[in-house]
Amino acid sequence: MDQALKAITIILFAGCWIVGVISWFVAVICMAxxxxxxxxxxxxxxxxxxxxxxxxxxxxxxxxGLILRTRLWKALLVFVGSIxxxxxxxxxxxxxxxxxx
Length: 101
Known about the structure:
Elements: H1 2-33, H2 63-100
Helix pairs in contact: 1-2
């Protein structure tokens, strides 16, 4: 039973890690493409100094930019969720082995 619990824990933790890495790369790609999908007069004021701040200003994005912005937020949410799930799996595995043995 102990070996099965270890194997299940490792598989679940690795799955969370893989999902987190993939979602991080999706977020990076969306973030890199986002400044190129702004409207013609969209880089006014503080957007001139840091074009990645366009994430917080959806009025200056085109339709494609809004889609990328939504994908970015979803990817970041999945990334944070996978980190939380991986941490919860690790804590549960530690508690189960501490109680059972």
